[in-house]
Amino acid sequence: MRLRPTPRGLALGIAGIVALQLGVVLGAVDLVRIGTLALLLVVGAAVAVGVLDPGRGKHRLSVLRHAVPNPVHAGEEAQIEVVITATDPAARVRLAGLKFAEQAATELSGGRPLRARVTRAPRRVTVTYSVQAARRGRWPLGPLVVTRGDPFGVVRTSATLGEQAEVSVWPAVVPLPTPSDVLVGEPDRVALGARSPSTDDASLRDYREGDDLRRVHWSSSARKGALMVRSDERAGMRPVSVLLDLPARATSLEWSISLAASMSLAMLDGGHPVRLVSGGTAAASPLGFVHDRSGPGARSALLDRTIDLEAPRSAVQGEAALVSAAHLLHTTEAGGEIVLAVLGPLGASARAALAHVADNALAWAVVRADTPAQEAEAEHTIKALRRAGWRACRVTPGEPVVDCWLRLLGSAQ
């Protein structure tokens, strides 16, 4: 609690002290009374406001905060509702006459005061306002700041109520077409049985990385000592790994994450099991595949993996992380998966590591040139990847994501 006099209260207190001293010196009883009354008014107001402090005591007010939607995509709005409730009559007295101010991270408020609508009921006050998610990440809301003054306006107190809440912000994503006939050629589709019904829907086969665990036939797996899964019309859908090379430049970072997230969702919507593999600290451990059959939660699971991604501290650290991610792809033995990569200009060790990825996978890459000086390095990287069996094209950070995607698909021609 912060208890402080208002300018009016400060002036009244000073005037009371002066009047009291003059009354004593001059022997004027009326001045002594006036000074005493002024001081008593200030002190009494402070005691009354302190007793009704909403932030302490057993009659505290409860605060619930909701954000819809949460998470929210960067560039979109979220509606925030803060409900302050009095749980008993004593708390109801504390609720009356309060003024409310909400706190929010700059990434949500834009550094501007929040404009809120306040709705009052006998035992409840609801504060609603909107925030604009400016940047990917996890950003705090609250705690709520409440202010109370006395009826004479001489003392004011402020306190914080409730705990901080958090709004998670996903990267901005763009809907992309899913041309499976380009990513998986016709011979591969026939061999894999992609989108082709099995002759015997109850037939079993060995488990492969990317298969939905809900299709495991546990009794047969127990007899054979190895995981067996039931075949169905989607058993042949190739798993997709989206490899993200995180740049050090902040503008390129957000654009690259947005492109990788858009690719991941496009392939997920096409029926492929998808995982996002990054060289960043958030993906230091192997991540499983996400299946579209999980419903809306599948998209959320993929996007949640992008929230905490951070730029590498140096180019050396970034390349080492990318090499580690490439080794992860090469050693998971997914068996003919599709790899979609968002890369920057690569050093020799990263080019060598990614060359092996194309040995067992259909590998596609967009290579960005973060600055004009990197265009030659980007072209050198593209040529090296193509020699290793990749399909690759050059992109520029900031250009439309759909254009990059269509250019990548056109590189197969």
Provide a descriptive summary of the structure in words:
It is built from 13 helices and 18 strands. With 413 residues, the chain is α/β, with parallel strands linked by helices. It folds into 4 domains: 2-51; 62-170, Immunoglobulins (Immunoglobulin-like, Sandwich); 180-196 and 237-410, 3-Layer(aba) Sandwich (Rossmann fold); 201-232, no CATH class. It has a 5-stranded parallel β-sheet with strand order 15-14-16-17-18, sandwiched between helices. It has a 4-stranded antiparallel β-sheet with strand order 1-10-9-5. α8 (250-269) runs antiparallel to α9 (296-304). It is elongated and about 105 Å long.
Helix content: 25-40%
* Poorly predicted parts: 185-202, 281-286
Give the strand content. 15-25%
- Annotated CATH topology of the largest domain: Rossmann fold
Rg on CA atoms, Å: 32 Å
CATH architecture of the largest domain: 3-Layer(aba) Sandwich
Mass-distribution shape: elongated
- The end-to-end distance, rounded to whole angstroms, is 69 Å
Strand order in space, largest sheet: 15-14-16-17-18
In total, the number of domains comes to: 4
Count of helical stretches: 13
The biggest beta sheet reads:
5 strands, parallel
